[in-house]
Design brief:
271 residues, alpha/beta, Rossmann fold, 6-stranded mixed β-sheet, 6-stranded parallel β-sheet, binds NADP nicotinamide-adenine-dinucleotide phosphate, amino-acid biosynthesis, aromatic amino acid biosynthesis, NAD(P)-bd_dom_sf
């Protein structure tokens, strides 16, 4: 269907706001077309471009951003998500808790603010599909960037009970301690791969990206009343989701997390 937006080609001009995506390499970044589409939908004169910056150049690039008056901010991805915190003047509580930011904004005075929207994007995706979180029990696998962001967002969403599972158990001890400090009302436990007894089961690991991967959980613990959610976007139906469908579970795709995160990033970047 063609719209008025299609009829008016976008041109970069002197007032165009510049947004970036900081990565190394940038060949496979997915966000620019999505953010540029959102800018057109919101009728904003702004464009996102890739900045392929090796780790040793990150500090000087962020310092240069402070002096670029047409610059709104940048998405931050691999390998800069953790390192970027050291170059921010201010960091949101979510980014501080996770120890990583995935977006930075330049304030009018040149200060750089870092935020972490992975977890909030995931939660928004669930809400949008009609899946409530307050008072519910969640089994979460993983302790990397995505899973820890989701864990803190689940705390904010007031789940009643959160069970953490990961191959490397030491990471879970630290995440649990921080969750208990920030969300004392949430019952946080370190569990096993068995998801029995939970309302919502989340895979926050990379298991499922490669065909030979084992499932992240003991699939015999799934029951039809559960929601099974993924962070993995490719393949869209992971072996875990395929199995969950055979059990009769409601499934939730990884792409919902990205879709909602792009909208949140666009808001944060002033679009
Ligand atoms: N949908 C979205 O918007 C979105 C956003 C961000 C990320 N993601 C996806 O989320 C996934 C995780 O990303 P991430 O940034 O969190 O990665 P990460 O920081 O590298 O964490 C990887 C996690 O997977 C676990 N893992 C990896 N290989 C394993 C194996 N062979 N056996 C058991 N566990 C294993 C790791 O366990 P250990 O701690 O033991 O190493 C860790 O918990 C990726 O698929 C990524 O594409 C999606």
């Amino acid at each position: 269907m063609s719209t008025a937006l299609d009829a008016a080609p976008f041109e970069i001009a002197g007032k165009t706001r510049v947004l970036g995506i900081l990565a190394h390499p940038t060949d496979h970044v997915k966000a620019p077309p999505g953010i540029n589409r959102i800018a057109r939908e919101r009728a904003k004169d702004a464009v996102m471009v890739p900045f392929n910056v090796p780790p040793d150049g990150l500090g000087s690039v962020v310092n240069a951003f402070r002096s670029i008056l047409t610059f709104n901010g940048s998405i931050v991805t691999v390998p800069h998500k953790q390192a970027i915190l050291a170059f921010c003047d201010e960091v949101t509580p979510q980014a501080r808790a996770v120890g990583a930011a995935n977006v930075i904004r330049r304030e009018p005075d040149g200060r750089i603010v870092g935020a972490q929207l992975d977890g909030i994007g995931f939660i928004r995706g669930l809400y949008h599909q009609g899946i409530e979180l307050e008072g519910r029990s969640v089994h979460l696998s993983g302790a990397g960037g995505a899973a820890s962001a989701i864990a803190f967002a689940l705390g904010e969403a007031k789940v009643a009970r959160l069970t953490l599972n990961n191959r490397s158990r030491d990471k879970l001890v630290a995440i649990r301690a921080k969750l208990q400090e920030m969300f004392p009302a949430v019952d946080v436990a370190i569990g096993t791969i068995d998801p029995r007894g939970h309302d919502i089961v989340v895979n926050g690991t990379t298991l499922g990206m490669r065909p030979a991967d084992p499932l992240p959980i003991d699939e015999t613990g799934l029951t039809a009343d559960m929601v099974v959610a993924e962070v993995i976007m490719e393949p869209e139906i992971t072996p875990l989701l395929a199995f969950a469908q055979t059990v009769g579970c409601k499934i939730h795709l990884g792409r919902h997390m990205l879709d909602h995160q792009l909208q949140l990033m666009a808001d944060f970047l002033g679009l």
